[in-house]
Amino acid sequence: MNSPRLLSLVLALGATVALNAKLVTKPVAYEHAGTKLEGWLAYDDEKVKPGAKAAGVLVIPEWWGLTEYPKSRAEQLAKMGYVAFAADMYGAGVVTDDPKRAGELAGQFYGKPLMAERARAGLDQLVATGLVDGARVAAIGYCFGGSTVQALAYTGAPLAGVVSFHGGLIPVPAEAAAKTKAKILVCHGAADGFITAEELAGFTKAMNEGKFDYQFISYAGAVHAFTNPKADEIAKLRGLPIAYHKVADKRSWGHMKQFFKEVLGDTK
Amino acid sequence: MNSPRLLSLVLALGATVALNAKLVTKPVAYEHAGTKLEGWLAYDDEKVKPGAKAAGVLVIPEWWGLTEYPKSRAEQLAKMGYVAFAADMYGAGVVTDDPKRAGELAGQFYGKPLMAERARAGLDQLVATGLVDGARVAAIGYCFGGSTVQALAYTGAPLAGVVSFHGGLIPVPAEAAAKTKAKILVCHGAADGFITAEELAGFTKAMNEGKFDYQFISYAGAVHAFTNPKADEIAKLRGLPIAYHKVADKRSWGHMKQFFKEVLGDTK
């Protein structure tokens, strides 16, 4: 048998395995500082066996709360072999599509230790599944969640890396340079009007001065929420300057994959 | 035979193929505007057959001229299945390790149509090999070469994409937005003192206003020449603020690969 044929056979076998793979998804109840939370766990039980100590990824939602969107990202990550946990920041079942309400909900966290603490509760929950190698855990977040993973990293949380997708760039605390363990990838919409030139300059200055290990990527034409396929619908409904950008979504997901390969190693 | 064993066998076969692959490298004489030039062609003749119409990559050197470094990049690209051509900008055999002389040589091109024209002669030479699909050609460049691939793209040259590694950000001509066909990837050292904040701001503004398809990536801790393993040696010899940055080199090469996959498609 020549090698191209053999390769086709292997590819066909691979496809069969993929079809047989069982994606486990389930809500997970937990609690933080008196608030009852409910996150969303996803993994592929063909790839992740009990005691396997796979790589884990924490997913922090946009300011809308734990909607279908972050759950779908957790499932995508699970298909790639990660144990993914979409955290709940607000409280079991608390979601909204009203920007005013979302602003109030997210507003509880900005500039406060609670932002990192609540995210940390999600991280601990992910590790408590027993499926994850504690040295191979990363966190990603969208918009508000992008800010949150930055805040979590700055506390020195045991993370190999964080990825912020169209996240607000929050001030870097003075002690963060000494504490931070995570490598940082920021995926930024070049036309994102929510992030000011001052915030961008402040972030870059703090990163360079603090000698953080970071990568900052700007995607042409992308505005706020560029990775969320529902962004156009929400924009229309709510009159917000947000939009899905398919090309930037694909590029940033690819950049996240390369980053994970570096900081988490290979998955099965 | 179970699939992991089958996969090992295929991988072993793959390794054999790779060992048997023959890298063709050769100098190619050409001429532009009365200057005799000599570029460097590289391809893998197991992957690239006459009439195969493979994807091509033009490589524009640093201001040192066509030294071993751009040739080694052409060879790396050839191993990946591309037909690579490291262009000569200065004239056959004209290389230097003296920054003063390099500045004079590169100075002939900055701000002048000759920069794109001389690079275009190299691009034409690559296409003239007959090995390349003219719709699947990209250009990469280092430092001076990074500026040059920008200049070449802005003339509307038939390129699917350009990648600038630690290139100076040259002014974007007014007519470039309408002419440019190439998607643009800029790989920038976040600590590169040769590129001013004004140049960065001007580039971003021009890209956004002109609705260019670009991606701009900053790599923490990387200074000028961060991809060149010889940079430290040159820095010591010549007292220049340049340095090799292994991590940023690897990351940017990975980002280039993803970019090429998007703009050039798969290689064999």
UniProtKB/TrEMBL annotation, chains A, B:
<dbReference type="Pfam" id="PF01738">
    <property type="entry name" value="DLH"/>
</dbReference>
<protein>
    <submittedName>
        <fullName>Dienelactone hydrolase family protein</fullName>
    </submittedName>
</protein>
<feature type="signal peptide">
    <location>
        <begin position="1"/>
        <end position="21"/>
    </location>
</feature>
<keyword id="KW-0732">Signal</keyword>
<dbReference type="GO" id="GO:0016787">
    <property type="term" value="F:hydrolase activity"/>
</dbReference>
<feature type="domain" description="Dienelactone hydrolase">
    <location>
        <begin position="51"/>
        <end position="263"/>
    </location>
</feature>
<keyword id="KW-0378">Hydrolase</keyword>
<dbReference type="InterPro" id="IPR050261">
    <property type="entry name" value="FrsA_esterase"/>
</dbReference>
<dbReference type="InterPro" id="IPR029058">
    <property type="entry name" value="AB_hydrolase_fold"/>
</dbReference>
<dbReference type="InterPro" id="IPR002925">
    <property type="entry name" value="Dienelactn_hydro"/>
</dbReference>
